[in-house]
């Protein structure tokens, strides 16, 4: 399902509009400092990767709306399962036609949206510069097959960027989570296929993180503003260098793996 797609070089708002950026994308960039810290960090790393790769091809597995790729120069393909089961619908997992229509209308760098199972992917070999999977692997039963398929679709030298709950600290109470990984377990899984693997702890837990998870609602401006401010504070808390080595009190694992 192709959409508008081009490599962008962010400058000023009128230039962005002329280059085909949508109103949603401009609004997103304006409030980006108030987004969830995990998404901000993923986006920061994607921007850095895209800056070193001309017209980067990025596969976002399980990304649905893929907010963290907004404004990232390159060509984004979103891959996800169809939203079919009761659990998927209750937790808003997977893709349905409403998500597809909304994403195509809002995004200029999303070139394709595909229904695909990443444990048995129909995507071609060695076609992506980066594969990103944010809070996905914990939902996958066949995690080794998933990682092998990610490796297969990456170009040589490509990067796999992923996050998952911190199994060293976070109890698994989600009915759709198959497991939570400790830092050691996730590192071992990725090193079975990839080289140059780094696994860090990310995002400090606590009151500000919980408040930042609130949905934004125009009809409740104070409620929304409190959530936005909490995200900004939590981003500052989570940016301390020591956090990436801190098992206790952090909520996520953030991993980078590279294909030789």
Question: Top keywords for this entry?
Answer:
Rossmann fold; single chain; 35% helix; 260 residues; 7 strands; alpha/beta
Describe the protein's topology.
Elements: H1 13-18, H2 23-31, H3 37-51, E1 57-61, E2 75-80, H4 86-91, H5 97-106, E3 110-115, E4 128-134, H6 143-153, E5 154-165, H7 183-191, E6 195-204, H8 207-212, H9 221-238, E7 250-258
Parallel strand pairs: 1-2, 1-4, 2-3, 4-5
Antiparallel strand pairs: 5-7, 6-7
Description:
- The chain is of the alpha/beta class.
- 35% of the residues lie in helices and 21% in strands.
- It contains nine helices and seven strands.
- The protein has helices at residues 13-18, 23-31, 37-51, 86-91, 97-106, 143-153, 183-191, 207-212, 221-238; strands spanning 57-61, 75-80, 110-115, 128-134, 154-165, 195-204, 250-258.
- A seven-stranded mixed sheet has the order 3-2-1-4-5-7-6, with helices on both faces.
- The longest helix is centred in the last third of the chain and has 18 residues, at 221-238.
- The protein is globular.
């Amino acid at each position: 399902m192709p959409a508008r797609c081009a490599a962008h070089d962010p400058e000023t708002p009128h230039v962005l509009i002329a280059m085909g950026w949508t109103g949603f994308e401009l609004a997103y960039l304006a409030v980006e400092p108030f987004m969830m810290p995990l998404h901000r960090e993923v986006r920061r790393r994607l921007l850095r990767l895209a800056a070193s790769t001309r017209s980067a091809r990025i596969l976002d597995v399980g990304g649905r709306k893929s907010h963290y790729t907004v404004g990232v120069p390159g060509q984004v393909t979103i891959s996800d399962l169809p939203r079919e089961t009761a659990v998927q619908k209750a937790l808003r997992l997977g893709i349905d036609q409403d998500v597809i229509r909304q994403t195509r209308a809002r995004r200029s760098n999303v070139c394709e949206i595909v229904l695909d199972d990443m444990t048995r992917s129909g995507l071609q070999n060695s076609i992506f510069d980066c594969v990103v999977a944010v809070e996905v692997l914990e939902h996958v039963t066949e995690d080794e097959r998933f990682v092998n398929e990610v490796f297969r679709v990456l170009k040589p030298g490509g990067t796999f960027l992923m996050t998952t709950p911190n199994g060293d600290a976070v109890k698994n109470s989600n009915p759709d989570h198959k497991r939570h990984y400790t830092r050691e377990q996730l590192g071992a899984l990725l090193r079975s296929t990839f080289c140059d693997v780094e696994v860090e702890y990310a995002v400090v837990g606590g009151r500000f993180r919980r408040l930042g998870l609130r949905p934004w609602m125009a009809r409740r401006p104070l409620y929304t503003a409190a959530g936005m401010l909490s995200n900004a504070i939590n981003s500052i808390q989570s940016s301390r260098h020591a956090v990436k080595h801190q098992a206790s009190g952090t909520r996520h694992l953030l991993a980078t793996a590279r294909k030789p």
